[in-house]
Design a protein that fits this description.
Blueprint (H helix, E strand, L loop, with lengths): L4 H7 L9 H8 L10 H4 L1 H13 L4 E3 L7 H4 L8 H19 L4 E6 L14 H17 L4 E7 L2 H14 L4 E5 L13 H10 L4 E4 L5 H12 L6 E3 L1
Parallel strand pairs: 1-2, 2-3, 3-4, 4-5, 5-6
Length: 236
């Protein structure tokens, strides 16, 4: 890229792609009963077609199919040993899609929580989670991702652990997103303002919310974040 991601952020809004998992389910004709991330190895053309569809629709950023591709999340499916291969393939598929589109595209290496949604970070051994995040971030960065995006985290401590691990593994720009309830709080009970304070301390490139409960509640969360920070905001 001729400009850095931070320079691009200063120029105005970036249109991101949409969800990967729902598209994998819809396009496969059947529900995946295995890891969605393993599709990078078993159904790479399907993953590429989804990227290309989003790029054709106007996306300037594509997200790797690696949301659950840390070793802890892959282990129940028997794919922990394939962590590196799955993440590396995820980046390569996204980069090939960007090349085929003929557009300037930012490839975001996606990292999701290490634990199960709603179970909180306390259910995990911190050292194990840190290592899982570190290893995934390192592979995504070495494979050529332009930035890393942390998505659908439900409590601040786990997101802090993930970002700290990534900062030890790479110098890539980091985006932090959490999931919120109808009440405008994370599943861990934290407010948008608390999320901003925690993420500003870690000096991430952008802060926001994704998934969750639909456009209007997310807009309200983003408005609250905007009232307490000048950092770029992301809503997906």
């Amino acid at each position: 890229m001729s400009t850095s991601f931070f320079e691009r952020l200063s120029l105005g809004p970036i249109i991101c792609d949409g969800a990967m998992g729902t598209q994998l389910h819809a396009r496969s004709g059947t529900l995946f009963d295995q890891s969605l991330d393993a599709a990078n190895l078993t159904k790479p053309e399907l993953v590429k077609d989804i990227h290309l569809a989003y790029l054709s629709a106007g996306a300037e950023m594509v997200s790797t199919n690696t949301f659950g591709a840390n070793a802890l999340k892959l282990a129940p499916y028997g794919h922990a040993e394939q962590m590196e291969a799955i993440n590396r393939a995820g980046v390569l598929i996204a980069k090939e899609s960007a090349r085929l589109s003929g557009q300037k595209v930012w490839v975001a290496g996606i990292i999701g929580p290490a634990g199960r949604a709603g179970h909180g970070f306390g259910a995990l051994m911190t050292s194990s989670a840190y290592q899982a995040f570190y290893d995934q971030a390192k592979v995504l960065a070495e494979s050529g991702a332009d930035l890393l995006s942390f998505e659908t985290f439900s409590d601040i401590p786990e997101l802090e652990e993930a970002i700290s691990a990534a900062q030890s593994a790479t110098n890539l720009p980091l985006i932090a997103q959490m999931t919120f309830t109808e009440e405008g709080r994370t599943l861990g009970g934290e407010t948008p303002e608390a999320v901003v304070a925690a993420m500003q301390r870690l000096q991430v490139a952008a802060i926001g919310a994704n998934c969750s409960v639909g456009p209007l509640p997310l807009l309200q969360v983003i408005e609250r974040m905007a009232s307490v920070t000048n950092l770029p905001l992301i809503s997906q």
